[in-house]
Design goal:
The chain is an all-alpha fold. It folds into 3 domains: 71 residues, no CATH class; 173 residues, DnaJ domain (Helix Hairpins, Orthogonal Bundle); 67 residues. It contains 14 helices and no strands. Helix 2 runs antiparallel to helix 10 and helix 4 packs antiparallel against helix 6. It starts with a helix and ends with a helix.
Length: 340
């Protein structure tokens, strides 16, 4: 359920927040009377990409912190026993005796019965080295594994429980690669996936579990829950960033091959326009088709008009005419210029 809610949040929150921030930013920096950049303009696209990348990165960090915060505030058996995760057997027994006296139903009434049952269950698991080994690595799920009696049995059962999760995830990544989907970040997806498998295998099989730096002490199964959530949200973040970085790559200098479709369409349009212009010109000459002199007269006038128009629009001709007019006006009295 939490994964579904996280996916729903990723589907609309980054774009929604980006739109709000961009709108506020433009209203803040734009002076009164100046136009605000509109959607689709180069500046709007550039600013949207930058803000969206920042929002996705910030939301990724927030989801990781939220996952960590939820894990450390979910009580485990050590929290019920009010002990550290490295508590020894003697200290554990002493704490259990004090807590059972404190929460015994004869003392606190029926309201403490549930707490007393949890204390008894936690002590039974943590006082047994084999069950404690399994609980540290697989969490409360190991309570349902009735036919396991050794560490090996628990490891085999835990491996069979993890296998469908990783097999399904790997199959999903392979299908995306074969179909050509999610090309951006494909290497990092597979790299993160195999890093997660390596980390989980090391955490489960090692006799002493590692501690994560800059984090409060977490049990191995809590570390694995956090690692899976980080991998899941990272995959989604990469998918969100893919269109942004792909569009940035496509904004490089155009090549002949990339412009070939546009050039072919432009050539086809030019050819079509030339054909239509020829047909319209032939249609205009249709009334004069039987009058050879009139057609010749129109052709001569059009030719002269084209020559004159070309000469007038030529920069060198315009400069020469301007110089001649300037020389003619030189030395002419101001009154004479006005009379002209």
């Amino acid at each position: 359920m939490s994964a579904l809610l996280s996916f729903i949040g990723w589907s609309f929150l980054p774009s929604l927040v980006t739109g709000w921030i961009l709108s506020f930013w433009y209203r803040f920096i734009t002076r009164a009377g100046d136009p605000i950049p509109q959607r689709g303009t180069p500046r709007w696209v550039r600013d949207y990409k930058r803000i969206n990348i920042s929002v996705i990165g910030a939301y990724l960090l927030y989801t990781i912190y939220e996952s960590y915060h939820g894990i450390i505030h979910t009580p485990n058996f050590y929290a019920f026993m009010r002990s550290n995760i490295d508590v020894d057997e003697r200290t554990l027994k002493s704490k259990f005796r004090r807590l059972t006296v404190l929460y015994h139903p004869d003392k606190v009434g029926l309201g403490g019965e549930e707490q007393f049952v949890m204390l008894k269950l936690a002590y039974d698991v943590l006082s047994d080295p084999v069950k404690r080994f399994a609980y540290d690595r697989f969490g409360p799920d190991m309570l349902d594994w009735k036919h396991c009696s050794s560490m090996y049995d628990y490891l085999v059962r835990g491996g069979t429980m993890m296998l469908p999760y990783y097999a399904g995830s790997l199959l999903f990544l392979v299908i995306l690669s074969v179909l050509g989907k999610a090309e951006f970040g494909r290497y990092w997806r597979f790299f993160t996936f195999f890093c997660l498998i390596t980390f989980e295998t090391a955490v489960v099989t090692r006799p002493a579990f590692p501690s994560l730096p800059f984090f409060a002490p977490l049990l191995p199964f809590e570390q694995l829950i956090l690692a899976r959530k980080i991998a899941f949200t990272t995959f989604i973040a990469i998918s969100q960033l893919a269109p942004l970085f792909q569009s940035q790559r496509n904004t490089g200098p155009p090549t002949v091959e990339s412009m070939r479709p546009q050039l072919e369409r432009l050539f086809g349009f030019t050819k079509f326009a030339d054909t239509e212009a020829s047909n319209l010109l032939a249609l205009d000459f249709l009334p004069y088709e039987s009058d050879v002199d009139a057609v010749r007269d129109v052709q001569t006038k059009m030719k002269n008009w084209l020559v004159e128009n070309t000469v007038r629009n030529d920069p060198e001709v315009r400069d020469a005419v301007g110089n001649v007019l300037k020389k003619r006006r030189t030395g002419v009295p101001s009154g004479a210029k006005g009379n002209r």
